[in-house]
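pasting for ref
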Amino acid sequence: MTSFPIADASHGNPQMLAHAILNEDPYPIKALIVNRFEPLQSIAAAATTRKALDKLDLIVAIDVNFSEIAWYADVILPESIYLERADSIQAVSGLKPQLFMRRQAVSPRYDTRPAGSSSSRSPSVWTWANTSPMRPSRISGTSSSRTWG
């Protein structure tokens, strides 16, 4: 197996997706949930990636755009655009560490949802109706005393 020393090991290595599916390494993969990721355009050897995708029993695509992977998907879950969703608090380290978050600016125009809040689609996976309950836990351990309404 090829190693990628620069890749962030905590987030996996998408370049190994086709290898993992085709060789069932480290185990058989039968389904793929793709969230804002385009494997057919971002992984080299697109023909090998297509062959791997053809081997899967189920592909679910979650995206704001109808992407190339959506053509392969068995199920497409349309995601809200950035103005239609609130996201959890993000932390940025560096010389001036910062916390930031996105608040919903407008209501969704269509039947879309933020990717992480698929509660009506899969209630056992996501227990919050929105990201507000997560906010206090995201800032625990920081010096922020912000209260969230």
